[in-house]
Amino acid sequence: MSRIRVALLGTSFARLVQAPAFQRHPGFELVAIAGSDAAKTQRIAGELAIPTAYGDWRMLLERERPDLVSIATPVFLHHPMMLAALAAGAHVHCEKPTAMHLGQAIEMRDAALAAGRVAGINHEFRFFPARAHALAVIRAGGIGRPRRAEILGRYPIWHSVHGRAMNWLADAARGGGILGALGSHHTDCLRTVFGEPEVAWGSVRVQQPRRGPASEGASEGVATADDACTFQYTFAGGATALVDLDATTPYRFERFEVHGEEATLRWDETGYRLWRLAPGADAEELALPADLALEPVAGEPALIAPFRRMVDRLHRAIALGEPLSPSFAADAVPVQAALDAVRASSLAGAPIAVARVPEPVAR
């Protein structure tokens, strides 16, 4: 079979993480990239040896007719880009957070199903070995019935006005905010353990609103998108989970814990070490199965290694017709429903039921 022709929409995460992963897979051919700045995009294409570059993503779709479009742009562009890519006959892989709201996510899902195209969502954190093995241990009964999880995240992104400059991540109108950026991953993690959340109670806030120029030529502004959030989910059967994220701290730290009736599992932010903690015993570091091992390269962005697993799954889904996981329909849309409930709860100051995702309309 000939290689699958891939086009990238976006020049930030797509350049740093996605391009290397696609280029290292023998089943893909990276043929084009589009960005909002034509000159910058042309320069990036040259650095990455991508044959063509566009300052207009619609022109890319029209001229290149790629087999797969990978969308790695600000969130407000995901909906129009995915619909246009599907209309052009392409399979689609979309970065998280999925969309601006659940209505868009459902429309994107339904368009992919109607077109008969593969549609993926980039929850590549699933492939970190510690998280993947933790889920296997839980499902095998290794901690008893899971009843509580806690995820703590501290990130030195906007710890002062001289942190990251004003850009779309600080703009709510373009889909910015830490809830979408990382809360989407953490919500996906929790639902693989407990099932879909039924109720959300959240606080979504801007703690350090000033965004100053971090470098010459950067813009200043006032953030409208959240830089901190705290939320709790309640699941069927009474299990609960707490997530507390703060992107205004001067240091980085992450901790993941799932508490069961018999023991707790804990993994660290790197995703390569897992511990089991039981009453009256020292913490036991669990060996990670060889088939979960990744191959990080020193000096490269840490997410390239797990994203390569995502790329391989995309290839098997497109080339061999294997079911894709994580997928847009099964994973992106319910995560969007949960995030919407967190935001609604923050505005209401009260718990909010997570909307049930309607089944696709028969066509």
Structure description:
The chain is built from nine helices and 17 strands. The chain has 363 residues and is an alpha/beta fold. The protein folds into two domains: 4-124 and 308-324, Rossmann fold, CATH 3.40.50; 125-294 and 336-345, Dihydrodipicolinate Reductase, domain 2 (2-Layer Sandwich), CATH 3.30.360. The strands form three sheets. A nine-stranded mixed β-sheet has the order 16-15-14-13-7-12-11-8-17. A six-stranded parallel β-sheet has the order 3-2-1-4-5-6, with helices on both faces. It has a two-stranded antiparallel ribbon with strand order 9-10. Strand 13 (248-260) and strand 14 form a beta hairpin. The two termini are 30 Å apart.
Give me a quick take on this structure.
With 363 residues, the protein is α/β, with parallel strands linked by helices.
The largest beta-sheet arranges its strands as 16-15-14-13-7-12-11-8-17
Oligomerization: single chain
Helix content: 25-40%
Global outline: globular
CATH third-tier fold name of the largest domain? Dihydrodipicolinate Reductase, domain 2
Q: Return the domain count.
A: 2
- Write the H/E string, N to C: EHEHEHEHEHEHEHEEEEEEEEEHHE
Topology, number of strands: 17
Helix vs. strand class? alpha/beta
The CATH architecture of the largest domain can be named as 2-Layer Sandwich
User: Distance N terminus to C terminus?
Assistant: 30 Å
β-strand percent reads 25-35%
According to CATH, the homologous superfamily of the largest domain is: Dihydrodipicolinate Reductase, domain 2
- Radius of gyration (CA) equals 20 Å
Low-confidence stretches: none
Characterize the largest beta sheet: strand count, sense, and whether it forms a barrel: 9 strands, mixed
